[in-house]
Description:
With 74 residues, the protein is mostly helical. Helices cover 76% and strands 0% of the residues. Helix 1 (3-28) runs antiparallel to helix 2 (40-69). It is rod-shaped. The relative contact order is 0.20.
Amino acid sequence: MKASTISAIILGITIGLVAAVLGFNVLFNHGGGKLWFYWIAPLLAIGNFFTFAQLALMYWVKVGRLEVKGRPRQ
Length: 74
């Protein structure tokens, strides 16, 4: 498997996890007197995690598996 495939999958999962952690932090941190519309920020960050996780998974399905399998032999 190429290093670019591995790094792309790791980067997608890492960005998604950071967004999810920050989203949960904002969701459960009620201090600071934020405006009424700040409730959407954690939902967007958590949704961002699922988007990046799906991107990493589909990259593996479409590209990574084919690279690991290699060219068919005859």
